[in-house]
Every structure is written in structure tokens, then in C-alpha cells.
């Protein structure tokens, strides 16, 4: 068994939680993060994991990118999508020739990573557990959620099996898949809806439970579903969320049931609001809207699929980021009205 640490690049909500669990299980880990106070807390007093799943404190070796030396064969990338390129520039000199970067992120960062380090040095991962970085050395682990890993080409390699074994130490229900892009597209359908919930200050669950907002969730699910199908992706989900119900021509009944399930599912977490909401309302910073949601419209255009609701969603999020619109129902209402009138004209 190798004693070389797994490098976790970005030790916030997702990377920090994985790192604390792995370190506690005796897996050698080294966190890399640009927040010096967080790095200092992790390696001295320890990283405190709080919340309903489990509470513990774990010292985890950690460095800033400037302090890092050496070459590593396994790098888990867990920065927000907007930081992916900067992180890749800094990590590539530390990636072994025969090593790989595993993206523990939302969106299709694997495409960017593969361009930077090569497809053969990229592995995909779908993470759907909920966590929030609350301050240096403090992470709320709000709920368990799907963890799925796989090679981009679906091959069942030894290294993918090993990452699955390691991820299973974090969550025993982790899955090894031959269709990681299917899971990533499934999360994009849910993720687009999460961006919609962040247009207001209401919780994810309150958003999904409100019948007035239903046309938005349906339109976003259908647009992502249409692009996925046109690109030949077989989307996969989690729990009772099956993104295939949003495929073109699919009946509305199962779609409505899926949103009702999401209202219930998102009511059972200590992380009541999405990471997007947190970026806007708490961290006061740009979200992953353009790299995570904008890319769906760009990929849709390539195959002749229009995505008007997704485009308006990104514009509204960017208006909030730029201080041009409030985080409030009146902003979501713009999208509700667009989606309502589109569904009556079809
Ligand atoms: N949080 C969640 O519940 C979930 C998140 N995800 C996805 O996981 C990914 C990570 O999100 P999350 O953990 O929430 O984000 P966080 O902001 O909590 O953590 C990212 C950490 O990486 C740091 N960072 C930024 N740029 C760099 C860099 N160049 N090098 C090293 N560290 C850097 C950040 O610092 P700083 O804050 O100063 O930028 C921060 O400490 C995202 O794609 C997100 O959408 C997926 C499922 C659930
Ligand atoms: C809601 C969650 C945690 C997925 O369950 C997420 O992906 C986010 O906050 O962006």
C-alpha cells in the first residue's frame, strides 16, 4: 500500500470533509488551500466537522500552494469551478507523469481538467453530499449524499477501483460507475434548479414546495434533459431523482413527482440553502453560474438545442452578483413568467 498522500486541492466544504474522513481513517492526506488561516487551523488545532451526520475534530496535514513541494499521483480537485483553471496551473507541476486529477466538483470541470493535464490523467466524480465551510477549521457536514467515481471513458481501471475503495471509507454507499458523465449531467439538471432556488433567500425545500415556482424547475430540468439527450448522454440520478424523466417528450406527471420528492429530500439537511445561495448571500462572491450552467447552453447550441430558461437564469444570477437585482422573489418571478408563458405557447 502506498504511503504517498492524496493531495486535496481546495480544502473547503467538500475537500475538507473528505480530507478529515480520510485522515481519521488513517489514509495519508495533504490538504492544499489558499486560505492561510484555514490551513493553519487544519494542521494544528484540527478540522472540526459538525452537524447531524457526525461530529469530530481531526488534525489534517495542510499547506498553502506556495509551501507545497514534491510530486503526487492522486490529486482530488475540490475548488469552485471559477478557480479550476488557476488551481490547475498551480497543481500541474506537482502532478506525477502517471498520476491523475479527480474532480470532486459540480459541473463539467473534467473537460477543462482533461484539456490541461490530458484525458488519461483525469478522473470524474459526482458528489452530492451537503457541506458548508463556516470558517477556518470549521465545516458543517449537513447531509450524506451520493458519491460516485469513474473513468471518463468508463473503463474499470485499477486506479478507479482504488479511488472507489477510498471514497467508500468516507461514505459506504459510494458507487463505481462506467458512466460518470451520465451522473454529472444528472447533477446538472438538479444543479440548474439549485441555481434557481438561489434567486431568493428561501430554503431549497421551500422553493421546491411552492407550486407557483414549479414551471421554473420543469423548464430547467427539460432544457438540461434535452441537451443531454441530443449529446447522446444517458443521464443518471440519485435517490428518487431520475433526470431521465425530463427527457424530450416525457410526460409531466413524473416530473412533478420528482420536484415534490426534491422538496422532501432538501428538507432533511442541516444545509438548508445551496452553495450558490451561500456564495451570493454569505460569501458575497461570484457563483459558478457561467462555468457550470452557461456551458450547458453552449453545448446545446452545438447540437441545435435552445436553452432560454438556462440563459435567463445565468443572466439573473449575474445581475445579483453585480448588485443590479435583489435576491428576492421579484427576481425569480422574471423566470417564472418566462417559463409560464413558454409552456402555454408550446
Ligand atoms: N458544498 C457542497 O455542499 C457541495 C459542493 N459541490 C461542489 O464542490 C466544489 C467545491 O465546492 P465547496 O467545497 O463548497 O467550495 P468551498 O469554497 O467551500 O471550498 C473551496 C476551497 O478552495 C479554496 N481555493 C480557491 N481557489 C484555490 C486555488 N487556486 N488553490 C487552492 N485552493 C483554492 C477556497 O478558498 P476561497 O474560499 O478563498 O476561494 C476554499 O477554501 C464546487 O464545484 C461545488 O459546486 C458539490 C456538491 C455539494
Ligand atoms: C445542494 C447541494 C449540497 C447538493 O446536495 C449542492 O450541490 C450545492 O449546494 O451546490
TrEMBL record:
E.C. designation(s): 1.1.1.169
Keyword Oxidoreductase belongs to the record: yes
Transmembrane segments: none
Major enzyme class: oxidoreductase
Span of domain Ketopantoate reductase C-terminal: 179-320
Keyword NADP: yes
Residue ranges the record marks as coiled coil: none
Catalytic activity: (R)-pantoate + NADP(+) = 2-dehydropantoate + NADPH + H(+)
Pathway field: Cofactor biosynthesis; (R)-pantothenate biosynthesis; (R)-pantoate from 3-methyl-2-oxobutanoate: step 2/2
Domain Ketopantoate reductase N-terminal: 6-153
Protein name as annotated: 2-dehydropantoate 2-reductase
Organism: Bosea rubneri
Amino acid at each position: 500500500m502506498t504511503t504517498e498522500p492524496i493531495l486535496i486541492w481546495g480544502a473547503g466544504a467538500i475537500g475538507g470533509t473528505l480530507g478529515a474522513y480520510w485522515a481519521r481513517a488513517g489514509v495519508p492526506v495533504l490538504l492544499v488551500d489558499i486560505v492561510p488561516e484555514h490551513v493553519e487551523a487544519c494542521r494544528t488545532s484540527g478540522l472540526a466537522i459538525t452537524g447531524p451526520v457526525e461530529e469530530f475534530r481531526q488534525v489534517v496535514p495542510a499547506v498553502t500552494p506556495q509551501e507545497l513541494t514534491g510530486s503526487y499521483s492522486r490529486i482530488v480537485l475540490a475548488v469552485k469551478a471559477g478557480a479550476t483553471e488557476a488551481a490547475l496551473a498551480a497543481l500541474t507541476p506537482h502532478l506525477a507523469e502517471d498520476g491523475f486529477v479527480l474532480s470532486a466538483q459540480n459541473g463539467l470541470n473534467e473537460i477543462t481538467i482533461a484539456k490541461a493535464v490530458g484525458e488519461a490523467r483525469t478522473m470524474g466524480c459526482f458528489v452530492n453530499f451537503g457541506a458548508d465551510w463556516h470558517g477556518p477549521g470549521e465545516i458543517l457536514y449537513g447531509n450524506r449524499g451520493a458519491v460516485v467515481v469513474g473513468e471518463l471513458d468508463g473503463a474499470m481501471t485499477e486506479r478507479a477501483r482504488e479511488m472507489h475503495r477510498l471514497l467508500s471509507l468516507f461514505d459506504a454507499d459510494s458507487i463505481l460507475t462506467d458512466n460518470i458523465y451520465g451522473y454529472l449531467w444528472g447533477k446538472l439538471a438538479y444543479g440548474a434548479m439549485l441555481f434557481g432556488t438561489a434567486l431568493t433567500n428561501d430554503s431549497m425545500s421551500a422553493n421546491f414546495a411552492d407550486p407557483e415556482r414549479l414551471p421554473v424547475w420543469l423548464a430547467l430540468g427539460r432544457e438540461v434533459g434535452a441537451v443531454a439527450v441530443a449529446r447522446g448522454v444517458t443521464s443518471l440520478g440519485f435517490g428518487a431523482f431520475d433526470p431521465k424523466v425530463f427527457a424530450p417528450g416525457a410526460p409531466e406527471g413524473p416530473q412533478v413527482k420528482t420536484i415534490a420528492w426534491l422538496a422532501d429530500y432538501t428538507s432533511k439537511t442541516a444545509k438548508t440553502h445551496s452553495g450558490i445561495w451561500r456564495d451570493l448571500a454569505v460569501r458575497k462572491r461570484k457563483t459558478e453560474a457561467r462555468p457550470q450552467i452557461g456551458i450547458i447552453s453552449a453545448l446545446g447550441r452545438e447540437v441545435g438545442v435552445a436553452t432560454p430558461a438556462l440563459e435567463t437564469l445565468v443572466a439573473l444570477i449575474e445581475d445579483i452578483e453585480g448588485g443590479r437585482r435583489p435576491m428576492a422573489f421579484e427576481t425569480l418571478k422574471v423566470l417564472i413568467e418566462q417559463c409560464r408563458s413558454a409552456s402555454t405557447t408550446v
